[in-house]
Specification:
Oligomer: single chain
Radius of gyration: 33 Å
Number of strands: 6
Helix content: 25-40%
Distance between the termini: 94 Å
Structural class: alpha+beta
Strand content: 25-35%
Mean pLDDT: 80
Order of helices and strands: EEEEEEHHH
Largest sheet: 3 strands, antiparallel
Length: about 160
């Protein structure tokens, strides 16, 4: 038994076979040239049309069908092909997020490693700076949560 309707994505093009359409149709649409579109059904009993609705609202007939069941089957087939495409928007978003997360993790690990090397941090120990004669000593940090006046903060130790 032959498949009446089949649709796949090949080399950034949607290719569909509609054996039940009148006349039987093989249709190819370049997805790189057609960025914004909708697959739509129009018609009435005995005269159903499967087509593409452009972003400007123009309907272009792809195939004509005698019954609603045939056009629904063709629509579902095209829908499955577009949704399972590795180039679908959801897959692009997920791929971009994964790449961004990977780069961020690599950069964070590199920054932590470089910070540990450049600060001479050995095993997480905190070093004490020695003040040489002639250097200005910075005031000791004040405990947080205790209100102080500006004079108290700027007062020499």
């Amino acid at each position: 038994m032959m498949v009446a309707t089949k649709a796949t994505i090949n080399e950034r093009a949607l290719v569909a076979l509609f054996r039940d359409s009148n006349p039987p149709t093989v249709w190819r649409m370049d997805l790189d040239k057609n960025h914004s579109f909708a697959v739509a059904i129009q018609g009435k009993e005995g005269e159903w049309e499967l087509g593409i609705m452009s972003s400007r609202g123009e309907f272009t007939v792809v195939a004509r069908f005698a019954t609603r069941e045939e056009v629904d089957t063709a629509f579902a087939c095209v829908q499955r092909a577009l949704m399972s495409s590795p180039s679908s928007l959801l897959n692009k978003v997920i791929r971009t997020a994964a790449i961004t997360a990977t780069i961020t993790v690599i950069l964070l690990i590199g920054a932590v490693a470089l910070n540990g090397v450049s600060s001479g941090d050995a095993g997480g120990k905190i070093g004490v700076a020695q003040i040489q004669p002639g250097q200005v000593a910075l005031p000791a940090p004040t405990p947080s949560g205790i209100p102080l006046s500006a004079d108290e903060v700027l007062q020499a130790p």
